[in-house]
Amino acid sequence: MHYQESFRSFIERLRREGELVDLHQPVDIRHIATLVDQSDKALMFHNVIGYEMPVVSGIIRSQKRAIMSMGCETYPEIEAKLKRGIDNPIPPKMVETSPAHEIVTEGDDVDLYKLPIPMSSIYDGGPMITAGVVMARDLEFGLNSGIYRFIVKEKNLTGIDIVTPNNMRLFAQRAYEAGRPCPISISIGTHPYEIMGSGFRAPLGVDEMAIAGGIRGHAVELGQCKTIDVPYIADAEIVIEAEILPTGWVYPEGRFGEFTRLMGGLHWNPIVRIKAVCMRKDAMYYALHMPWENTWLAAPTRYTQIRQALKTAGVAVKDINVTLGGCAFWHAVISIHKQAGEGKNALLAALSVLDLKHVVVVDDDIDVFNPIDVEWAIATRVQADKDIVVISGARGKPLDPSLPVTPPGVVPTTAKLGIDATISEGIPKERFERIAYAYADTALLNDYLDGKQDPSGVTAGDVDVGFVADEILRMIRDEPRYYTDIAESLSRYNFETVARALGHLHAEDLLWQDARGRMCEKASRFAVQPPG
């Protein structure tokens, strides 16, 4: 479904299905970010004051639109589609021409100020390119793609935010150490397929555009840049050809609004020189809105890697929830089909994935998407001295605001926490039988609101209670029965009659209970014995 979809056809589909609102009146570019933040739909600004190009934003800023972008019906399907792309990558295909080269500006004519690049948060360090799929080539490791932010500093100069250790930073570092620039292309206005592919942290040497092709079901088309030896995404609205200069991480940049829903601090980053700007004749500018437009497609990339780690550890997974409260990055709740000892094994496997910081493992009866259910599991199944695991000195993420400040270039370390909220071995399972109300499948409120009436049943005045008591005794002689089960089996009598009959058996010292609380005959082998 929608495998052949382009950026433009996706925008049109959002419009057709009522998920995009067109604003044709003049709008100040300084107002775009806050208007998108207030909207439950994507917004297209057709008349941005001072610019000839429209701006679109918020296209994957909701779960619904993220699902639509991947051609899926449900959110969990996105993970399956990503896994298909990882397991069955399709190498990109080079094309000779593309609409992105309809207008080309090079050298001294480059002027980023002509692009409608908006501000976002109050404390941002400048207008910022946020939706650029960046491609670079390393002589040894081949192509790499990712999404990075570029704050505009001059008409042909930006920074690139690669403070976090990743493959793109490695490429730039290797070029810096060799004393040469690192050529990059920046494709703006690409389909979310390419955004998801480039957002997946693939192993060094793996082409993320091949993963995007696997997600699509056919090859991503790439074109060749004009001024640098790097490809770009042929379907893009705008392509910026540039070089990361071999300056090192010495220029202050920021601040940035981060995926953490917090303002990040000042970063130290390299400088990027723009060599050319290429675009369609009727190009539109895509501004990815932080943080939520980064979230819905980022989380499934975590699901895939967590699931693989647990599979390697031999743990059978039921569900995974990389929570929004954990910024779709740091927190995971995992339910497993547990065997002895696997709660701890699952914790250790999951905490090895990326920069996951806190993991809760629960049994398969817990809904990982229900925070009350998860907290209930922690409250009722955890003994802190046995079920909490703390790992110190693990690789951290510089954007974690709880970490001490580290010098530029130094990767911080963090503590990781695992909570084994599964039922411990040796604990009777009946301790965890949840409250379930009798007749929940047959006694339905709406039926009674519509006038349903229950039959009166035979009353104690119409039958010998001793006769009913004997009937109960025969019923429980061979197999203990719960009180409600007995009442249901004798539903031809009204409840008072059944209760009196059970009371009669108790008074005759014939009624007892088994270890699970079911009614049984006192002299039977099922009867529980008093302590001591």
Protein described:
The chain has three domains: 89-293, Electron Transport, Fmn-binding Protein, Chain A (Pnp Oxidase, Chain A, Roll), CATH 2.30.110; 299-430, UbiD C-terminal domain-like; 445-521, Winged helix-like DNA-binding domain superfamily/Winged helix DNA-binding domain (Arc Repressor Mutant, subunit A, Orthogonal Bundle). It is 27% helix and 23% strand. It is built from 16 helices and 25 strands. Helix 4 (76-87) packs across helix 9 and helix 14 packs across helix 16 (495-507). The radius of gyration is 31 Å and the shape is elongated. The protein starts with 6 loop residues before the first helix and ends in an 11-residue tail after the last strand. The mean pLDDT is 90.
Write a brief structural summary.
The chain is an alpha+beta fold and 532 residues long.
Question: Which key features would you list for this structure?
Answer:
532 residues, Pnp Oxidase, Chain A, Arc Repressor Mutant, subunit A, nine-stranded antiparallel sheet
